[in-house]
């Protein structure tokens, strides 16, 4: 048994399950008219399924060979924790900040902070991706994703 894979699989299965519950609260809509929670639910379900695969792999017997490093020994936890914090923040601020702003900030953190790319590249990639996501889901597919209550005059 590989303890690191089992713990990681359990952790991401819990994250996927929690993300599924939060996505369900956004509203799923129907296949013909998907709601704002449909795509996040699909992604969270995929995360949960892949983490269960990792959990099963971790429970399978290992071949003999050099012992893998201990789980917490000399691990760099900064980037994984920053990724988790960015993902949680994205979920929290999605309705308030809206699709474009929350996606842009999320990607700036991932590309600039986690990927350690230059700020100009992080800005370009984040802006282009946020724009592409908006065009694809809101303009082309007509998915009613939040524009953000921070920027509306009524605050609805």
CA radius of gyration = 19 Å
User: What class do helices, strands and sheet pairing give?
Assistant: mainly alpha
Averaged pLDDT, please? 85
Distance from N terminus to C terminus (CA atoms, Å) equals 51 Å
Q: Treating each run of at least 4 consecutive H or I residues as one helix, how many helices?
A: 4
What is the count of structural domains?
2
Strand residue percentage: under 5%
Largest sheet: none
Which percent range fits the helix content? 55-70%
Total DSSP E strands: 0
Broad shape: globular
Q: Unreliable runs, pLDDT <50, ≥5 residues?
A: none
Spell the H/E element sequence: HHHH
What can you tell me about this protein's structure?
With about 160 residues, the protein is an all-alpha fold. The protein folds into 2 domains: about 1-75; about 75-155, no CATH class. It is about 65% helix and about 0% strand. It is built from 4 helices and no strands. Helix 1 (about 5-25) packs antiparallel against helix 2. The model has no long low-confidence stretch (mean pLDDT about 85).
Notable traits:
mainly alpha; 0% strand; single chain; 67% helix
Summarize the structure.
It contains four helices and no strands. The protein has helices at 3-26, 38-59, 78-114, 119-140.
